[in-house]
Amino acid sequence: MTSGKDLSERALGALLLAPAAALLLVIVVYPIATLFWNSLHAVDNANPAAGETFVAFANYARAFDDERFWRSTWNTVLYVVVTVPGALVVGLALALLANLPFRIKWPVRLGLLLPWALPLVFAGLIFRWFFEYRTGVVNDWLGRLGVEPLQWLSSPTLAFIAISIAIVWKASSFMALILLAGLQTIPRSLYEAAEVDGATRWQQFWEITLPMLAPSIFVALIFRTITAVQTFDIPFAMTGGGPGDSTETLAMYIYKTTLDFLDFGYGSALAALMFLLSLIATSAYLRHTNRA
Amino acid sequence: MPRRNIVVWFAALVVAVNGFFPAVWILLTSFKTETELIQSPITYWPHAPTLANYDAAFTAQPILRFMLNSLVVASLSTALCVLVGALAAYALTRLRLAHRNLIMSLLLAVAMFPLISLMVPLFKLMRELGLLNTYLALILPYAVLSLPVCTLVMASFFQDIPADLEAAAMVDGCSRVGALFRVVMPLAAPGVFTAAILAFVNAWDEFLLALTMMNRVNMRTLSVGITLYQGEFAFPWPLISAALIIAIVPICILIAVFQERVVGGLTQGGVKG
Fold it and tell me: What is the pLDDT of residue B273?
């Protein structure tokens, strides 16, 4: 292989990567740079006519004293801690069920695809209605079981539970699709050998299925964690952050700060802090991959 | 064997009911009247089925216009994403590049950046470019947001195509880029298709940017348009249900027609990606 060919191969590579690089520069890199720049600016209340002036890290300092920032961050962490394992357990159960040998495959396939393809905000609206006090179907079922109807969306704790249920329902189907892929790569011979050795179904699940599924579970968890940190649509549609701002997530607070209060500098600082949060959440996984 | 059959049937039922019950519930409600809705105890099957809600859904908001907007934005952003992603995936898998792993990691880092953080700078950028309330304001970001995952999915499929086939095409007078479009892409069709479906569904579902970039009613996409049906204090559920049913028809057709290839493509891509 001549060096001339190497060069042309490198030139072709650069040419093929150029469109992707250009798009990423305009749509991601430039906005990130302006985000950090904006986060160092604010409108001076004493002299609003001057527009946004440089304030160094004042916006970040403000966040540390902002109770609403801490509450919405705490809520976001709670959603991550509850819905990531929740969606994993439900998704794994769905994947195990969907992996059984069906003669007619379409009801199961569509049963997994429909929640995945449904826009988040639609899922939020539908579940909001399931949890309505008087006309909701959840209170109707509770009533049949002899339980008093609950004010699902006007109590902070119950609203958190209702939103988490909606998120888990919506997120578990994509989890299930990824895990189903993993399940289908496990060779049947492993189970046959285990059967010969007299292993029970339960032992087979713990000794074969779970270890073999680990890479898929890992991919599914990373995806879910990244999206859970950004939780916005479902609480936005179900409670709008209420009652009060008890179910507000960090993403919702950033949205309100920038687009409702038009406080771009502070909103940018909050967004930068959110990036930090998602880095912390995913770095745990990335450290695991580096070790593996 | 019969006991095993029952287990399989039960499993199918659980998965299907879990997936379908919200859609079935809004379908039933879309045929109910407001008065039936507030009856206590609530009814499941509509007593006096009516199509009035569908009538109202079409007249209360320009829902067909929302649908057109969603279709235009989702299809064009998907086309852009798959085209640009295919070129990048080809370079990353078939050429000997110096910083291959670094480029791959950078792509993943982009996927991790929260959309909400990009929202404000993107809003300002689009405002300066005069692109607010145009399709481009959503097409460009949507194409880029799906670019990392689409590139990685296509790369995993490109990797499996024997280099000999490509070499043969080039001996026959194909250029390298010609070989990409005539040999590699057709052979990796399932991967390209999976990438396209992922990008399309992502764009179709997106809410936050659509809410920010388009504030003229006629430019709203479906995911935002649906929220316009709610009143200030009251939720006209039968009307919203009818609108939701209209809104999910296109995506339901899409997944029903392509269900086998979607699940197949996702499972293949997922294993490798």
Answer: 39
Structure tokens at A47: 């002299």
Outline where B159-236 has alpha helix (H). Answer: 163-171, 176-179, 185-187, 189-205, 208-213, 222-225
Question: B228 CB contacts (<8 Å, ≥6 apart)?
Answer: B61, B217, B220
Tokens matching residue B107? 């792509």
* pLDDT number for residue A189: 86
Residues composing chain A:
292
**B97 in reach of chain A (CB within 8 A):** yes
Domains, chain B: 64-272 (1.10.3720.10)
* Distance between A46 CA and the closest CA of chain B, angstroms: 25
Read off the tokens for A138: 């959840």
Average pLDDT (B53-70) is 90
Indicate the average pLDDT of chain B.
Answer: 85
Q: Do A24 and B84 touch (CB under 8 A)?
A: no
Kindly determine whether residue A98 and residue B15, on different chains, have CB atoms separated by under 8 Å: yes
Of all residues in chain B, what percent carry a pLDDT higher than 70? 95
Closest Cβ opposite residue A122 in set B116, B248, B268: B248
Asked if B114's CB is within 8 angstroms of A219's CB, the reply is no
pTM (predicted TM-score): 0.88
Domains, in order of start, for chain A: 60-291 (1.10.3720.10)
